## 1
Amino acid sequence: MEYRHRSRLAKMCEGFFSPMQDDSPEIRLMRFACAGQAEEAAKLFGESKQFGGLPAVDTPYGRFEGADGIRRFAAGWLERFQAESAEITPVCQTQSGGRSVTEMNVSFVKDGMIDEVPMFAVGDLRANGMLDEARIYCNFTRVPGLTPYRKPIFRSAHLEMGDPNLLTGSFREYYEALHHVPKVDVERIIASMGDGCVFGGYEPITGDEPETEDPAPMDRETLTRIYTDMSNHIPRWVGMRYETLIDNGITAVIEWQHIVTDLGVEEAGRVCMSGISAYSRGTDGRLCSIRICDYAGFERTIDWSKTPISREEAFSINRVHVFPAGVGNG
């Protein structure tokens, strides 16, 4: 069977050690969804979370709460992707602190061809192989008819960027140099990366090309140009507040939400959304793979008639006038 779209995710994760527990509950959930086994999917969750609240599966196209909601998620998975069948191929797994994240390719069969969709599946774990909540991420262009808006999943405790002291090594160095005021430090960013560092894995679809090129390291001159350009609007427009951190010492995964300034709204239409990033460390301790799943650059194309909340409410979430000097410097 031929591919309509291929994923670069497996190539992005080559060359570094990543142990895999194939029976991890977030993997089982995705397999049940691909098989349309709604009851089996619901059995991975309790009637309520262990310490209160409804269990849930949060997807790019909506949130499904409680046992009935989780059944609807699994029963409607193939239909939402307009597929006849699907199967998953786990690629990279990161487990820490009661959470498990599996990056995987989901192969959807449509009209006799395969659409290979790279996804993050994040599980909040509880005892006996069960889940309290699962969150699924992929690029919006991979979901038929989806507009590029992901409603914030978490209620931010405060409107400041994450504390770098929670991070370690090259991950901390990269994050602090990029996302903390008063400005981006391009030299520190470049120094945090190994010579073979690759970027991507969750890119938007831009056409019907059957194959994608293998990821290749960027030269230092190109990286410097890219991050210098970013420094023109970070943190003037937007800051990153991480809401979960899963770091096994090899790969660090963060689920994050934006904090958006007035200038970000006025100049670029930036709006708070949820996203996820994975950063893998090479044998030299520097970053060797950066994989980010977000909708950056597509904000002005959002169709607000298709979003779960109004435009006005969306622009009110995690909104600040400006980042004060010194915020988030650790």
Note: The CA atoms of residues 191 and 293 lie 23 Å apart.
## 2
Amino acid sequence: MTKLRNLVAEVDAALDIYLAGRTGRQFNKVAFILADDCCELASKLYLIMQNPGWSDAQGNGRFKSFRTVTSEVRAALPATATILARIEARRVRRNGFFHSADLLDLTLQSHDVNDAMRDMLDYGALLFGQDWADEVTGTGNMETAEVILRLDCAARADPRIGPKVSDVFAKRKRTEKQKAKGCEVTHHPEDHHLRLAIRNGGKELRDQLAALLPP
């Protein structure tokens, strides 16, 4: 499962970048692109795991197109059809970032990024099942990061969720005081504090946040 572990590590990094710019949205485009990349890698890894002889190379030396790969996944696992339709639609938008200078100043809305990241996680779970869940559990604080992302998505439908999440983080420690004479106080920007809280909060924080998810 080394390759799956490596894929989950890439997904974890994408989540970390998303959370690093969650408030200011400065990394929205990067997170959106990384979600797309991770979905493509997940598709190819799934096909390799189903058939070790599978390759993304064509006879002419070129790589298979994104839609060729996703069509093979859809044929092998029909349950992916709905989520793949959304992933394929995002690929068109993602390609525009690289091929059209007119899109250089485009700022993606947070809900676009949230949905892309959520589909990335759901797609991995759909393709790899319990193996995916086991790798997520064993990867740093990824479970907590995933819960935060899902709460961001759920808050769009239920505005009561946002303040509850903010209240959880508002109660996390923000300052350090020296034991010796005098004191030193550090104030962290919101996203820095968020990431420190995730790193130090462990299962306790994850469970607090998970309790806020709608059934």
Note: Helices lie at 2-20, 28-50, 66-76, 81-99, 110-137, 142-157, 161-170, 190-210.
